[in-house]
Design a protein that fits this description.
Length: 315
Amino acid sequence: MIYLAPIQGFTDYIYRKVYAGIFSSVDAYFIPYVTVQNEQIVRKYEREILPGNNLYGRAVPQILVRDAQETELLGSILKNYGYAEVNLNLGCPYPMVTNRGRGSALLQNPESLKPILDTFFEQFKLKLSVKLRAGLNDPSEIEQVISVLNDYPLSEIIVHARVAKQLYKGTVNEMAFQIALERSEHPVVYNGDIFSVDDFQRRSEQFSAVSDWMLGRGVLMNVFLPAEIKGWRFTDAEKRFTLQHFHAGIVEAYLQAADNPGNALNKLKQFWIYFSLHFDDHARIFKKIKKSKSITDVQREAMLAFRDATLKQTC
Ligand SMILES: Cc1cc2nc3c(=O)[nH]c(=O)nc-3n(C[C@H](O)[C@H](O)[C@H](O)COP(=O)(O)O)c2cc1C
């Protein structure tokens, strides 16, 4: 199976809905995290988990918590919304998050995971999976974390085997992933740096025990990647047509959802950070998009790109 990774600010509910309406190659969509402030869910994340915004397939909400109390609050909101499964974020690397004891901060002290997991399984009859990094500072942290996770009936663990202090630099720690694979009593999903069919083939040969894969940035920069991994091939004309269709869907949905056209324009510019990478000449195209003063400007630049620009060869 192929899962779409949660990418805050990019794989929002609009992206997921429009994507799923066009492509059928992603088997589950992980929703970027929701979190708590002043004993309430942070309002800006609320739209992401509304059931009506997630009717496109298997959507898995993700919680970013530091203790049992926050777990109880978010778990009960998600249960009331009717979700059958939840994902726990043990990977977010940013100091704003880790300094508050959430995300990958919990990896350094696996004991702190116990009240969170105990609370979840005592209070809710929902499936729980975990998404984790190899450690906060050191990849050897993963061993103890896995041993705690093995004591709970998790549905799966998704491992992005960088340590948090790397952020997205350097490479995935293959040894740490191998350790997770060997020690985990739960199914292990691979995540990290699959940007092409070749990357996927290399990883699937290396980790032949893995059957489920989570892809993030690779999908943002090549929306065809999950289908290509599953063996589909597209002509240049099919790609141009589909990209155009996808873009039109995104524009329409952002316009509908935004409070004003300025916000929709900003969201669209953000979308183009990765979307421009479908083209060889992406730097020039993105510069034009960035300079756009209106949605109409973006639509014009997009039309020119779909018509004239060379698409990146993907496989
Ligand atoms: C801008 C950005 C936002 C992200 N937001 C989340 C998030 O909300 N929850 C999460 O678990 N991971 C988040 N991630 C990490 C991704 O889910 C994924 O683990 C990471 O990008 C590595 O996979 P990839 O190489 O396939 O992109 C984020 C990554 C980026 C770059």
